[in-house]
Specification:
The chain is mainly alpha-helical and about 70 residues long. About 85% of the residues lie in helices and about 0% in strands. It has three helices and no strands. Helix 2 runs antiparallel to helix 3. The longest helix is centred in the last third of the chain and has 31 residues. It is flat and about 50 Å long.
Length: about 70
């Protein structure tokens, strides 16, 4: 959602507010998992890191695919 917000929201301040609120949601979910003792803090941190790596890989593949389409 943050990636979509940075692309599709035209206003600079509105985009920043939306990105901040989405980051706050991520932090709140992670904190709630730790607070409710469902996961350890290291599990939450690892999950967030894996999520960002997965996002980066997906965006890299999309970029490669778009570059191949433009090249044709």
């Amino acid at each position: 959602l943050i990636w979509y917000a940075t692309i599709y929201i035209p206003g600079k301040w509105i985009r920043r507010i939306v990105v901040f609120l989405l980051l706050l949601v991520i932090a709140a979910i992670g904190f709630s998992r730790i607070y409710l003792r469902v996961h350890y803090a290291t599990d939450v941190i690892a999950g967030i890191c894996i999520g960002f790596v997965w996002l980066d890989l997906c965006l890299w593949f999309i970029d490669k695919k778009e570059a191949a389409v433009v090249k044709k």
